[in-house]
C-alpha cells in the first residue's frame, strides 16, 4: 500500500462522492486506499459514504457516534490507514485532489517526513484567514515551527510519523502539535486553493476559541512559564514601588492617600489571582480529562475494504 487518503467528513453529502470519484481517477497509477471518517454529520453524509464503500473496493468507511471535531476524526482515519504515505484532505474541494501527487512527489524527492501545502491566495472567508494566522503565530512560539511554514490541513505524512501520532490516546488531539513532537523534517509546496463549491465553512468562533486554548494549553509549557515571569515581574515592581513610596514619604514628605493604595492592591492582587487560577484551571482541566478515560473518538459503524486496488 503506497498511499492512504484520509478524509474527515462533515455535512458533505453533495461533495464527498465527486471527491472520491476524482481521487479514483487522478490516483489510478498508484496503489492507494481512501479512508472516510464521518464526524457525526447531521445530513446524509453517512449514507453516501457507506454507498461509496460498497461501490469501491479500496474505500473504507468509519462513522463516529457523534461530532468529535476535525482533529479527532483525522486521528481516527490515521489509525485505520495503512499506506507508506498518508494524505489528509478536506471534503470541500478547496484543495484539488490532483495536488496530492504534488505533495507525494515533494515528500519522496525531498525525503521529508511531512509536507504541508501552502497557497498563493487563500479562498477562505476573512474570519477563517484571521483565525489561521492567529493559530499559526501561536504555534510558532509554542511548537517551535518555522515562521514561514503555514500549518494547513491539507498535508502528507510519512508512515513512521503516523505510527507515532496514533499512539496519542487523549481526547484533545492536535495533529500539527503531535507532528512537531515527532519530527522537524517538514517541507511545503505551493498548491492551488479553490473557493468552496458547496455550503459554508464550519469554522466558527467557538471552534476557533477551542483550538486556540487547545494549542495554548495542551501542547506547551510556555504559557504557564510566561505567567510565572509576569507574576515575578509584578511582584518585583510592587516591592520596588513600595520601597520608593516609603523613601519618598520619609525623605521628601510625599503624601500618599491610603484609599489609593488599598484599591491598587486589591485590584492588582485579585486580578493576578484570577489570572493564575484561570491558567491553572485550564491545565488541571486538561489533565483531568486526559486521565478520565475519555476516548478521542468512538466508532459507530465500520466497513473495512474488501480488496486492495492494484496499481495499473
TrEMBL record:
InterPro entries: Glyco_trans_2-like, Glycosyltransferase_2, Nucleotide-diphossugar_trans. The chain crosses the membrane at residues 203-222, 229-252, 258-280. It is an enzyme of class 2 (transferase). It comes from the Bacteria. The keyword Isomerase does not apply. Pfam families: Glycos_transf_2. This is Glycosyltransferase family 2 protein. Keywords: Cell membrane, Glycosyltransferase, Lipopolysaccharide biosynthesis, Membrane, Transferase, Transmembrane, Transmembrane helix. Residues 4-165 form the Glycosyltransferase 2-like domain. Its EC number is 2.4.-.-. GO terms for molecular function: glycosyltransferase activity.
